[in-house]
Amino acid sequence: MHGSVYVYVEDVRDEGAGQVLDRIAGYGVREVTVAAAHHGARDVTPHGASRVTIRSDGVHFPPPADLFTGLRLAPPVQPGAEHEPLAALRAAAAERGMTVHGWAVFLHDLTLGLANPDVTVHDCFGGRGFPAALCPAHPDVRRYAVALARAVARQGVDGVVAESLHFGGFAQGYPQERCFVPLGPMDEYLFSLCFCDWCMRRATDLGVKAEVAREECARIVGGVLDGDPPAQGEVTRAALTAYAGPDVVAYARARSETVTSLVSEVASAVAAEGAKLTFLDGTGHRKGYADGLPPAGLAAHDAWQLGVDLVALGDIVPSFGVLAYARDAARVADDVGAYRRSVGNDRELRVVLRPGRPDTDSEERLAAKVRAVRAAGGDAVDFHAYGLVPYSVLDRIPGALGHTV
């Protein structure tokens, strides 16, 4: 089974492109997926030049002027981008016969959101408390996403892996987030829905009672903030209908048109640049990122909560990424199988596994998950991420893939 290792530009800068690629090739992996455009983070990097790496929002290449001239939004530029680290990595990969994919985070950008709050999520109370969440219904955001996709594709990569090309959830990844109110999963979901003018207009055009939905969300969430007991249990269509009513569910489901049309534009833009789009659905991240113990609902079945209609996207997107953040191989198989049934048999399915904490504690467990991916219809396994885990954890990869070093 083929696949890639996710890498950060800082990994390459610290260790050298040749050394990183040679180590990855030694695992029996011939592809790398590099963070060409990423969000800010503070990461422990066990074999980096700095054992704690501070990352910024933005791109690791000079943005092509023709793509962003006249646009309101343009990506922040990372320190060192002028040295074109992606070009150096691509050249080193070509010498070794390896493939490079460009990984881009689209609508999660705190820098752009703080500078342009009107393009961020507008909650049911009229607040802008989601500064890192750019709204995919806003025309300026949509134009930015298409331009960013073209820009990454122009870096000579074989494919563009699109993260956060949909609505986000309640948590923002802010440096310090505090909530001393016991919001349940459904309360958080209602709080996260965007009611900006653009979202309201799109929903209304689809026959949804958008203002009724907004008022109902404000009533329910406001009650919990005032001391009402929160709803318990996972967010499902049935539970949400019982809790918030059919108008809220209709509003939430209508968001899929916004995402599907945007992804269609981005996929066409990437194809026009000679590359292939891999759509990375963030639902698996929301469910299993913290501890590798996702709740019962499968990610493919819950993707609608982020505005992701996998069946519709299966007619548009050539490749999908599945974030299989789970300890149990059987759960990985269930998630992969559900995605396969949703997107169809003729679409590439790339499954992202974490070779170490919190999902994986041994080579045997990783191997079991690779076997589960293969049996459930996955086409590739991608490992996340080179710079975030010790070499001893990365050394599990060849055995899991059935290679010997």
CATH class: Alpha Beta
Poorly predicted residue ranges: none
Strand adjacency order, main sheet:
1-2-6-9-10-11-12-13
- Which structural category fits the helices and strands? alpha/beta
Outline type: globular
Describe the model.
This protein is an alpha/beta fold and 405 residues long. It has a single domain (2-121, 132-176, 258-401), classed as TIM Barrel, CATH 3.20.20.80. The chain has 18 helices and 13 strands. Strand 12 (348-353), helix 16 (363-375) and strand 13 form a beta-alpha-beta unit. Helix 1 crosses helix 2 (17-26), helix 6 (139-153) packs parallel to helix 11 (246-272) and helix 7 crosses helix 9. It starts with a strand and ends with a helix. 52% of the residues are buried. The model has no long low-confidence stretch (mean pLDDT 97).
Task: Quickly list its features.
globular, 18 helices, 13 strands, 405 residues, two-stranded antiparallel ribbon, Alanine-rich protein, alpha/beta, TIM Barrel, 43% helix
In a nutshell, what does this entry contain?
It contains 18 helices and 13 strands. It has helices spanning 9-15, 17-26, 65-68, 85-95, 110-115, 139-153, 185-192, 197-205, 210-225, 237-244, 246-272, 283-288, 299-302, 310-313, 329-343, 363-375, 391-394, 396-401, and strands spanning 2-7, 31-38, 41-44, 52-55, 58-59, 99-105, 120-121, 130-134, 159-163, 276-281, 319-323, 348-353, 380-383. The chain is globular.
Can you lay out the helices and strands and say which pair or pack?
Blueprint: E1 2-7, H1 9-15, H2 17-26, E2 31-38, E3 41-44, E4 52-55, E5 58-59, H3 65-68, H4 85-95, E6 99-105, H5 110-115, E7 120-121, E8 130-134, H6 139-153, E9 159-163, H7 185-192, H8 197-205, H9 210-225, H10 237-244, H11 246-272, E10 276-281, H12 283-288, H13 299-302, H14 310-313, E11 319-323, H15 329-343, E12 348-353, H16 363-375, E13 380-383, H17 391-394, H18 396-401
Helix pairs in contact: 1-2, 6-11, 7-9, 9-11, 10-11, 15-16
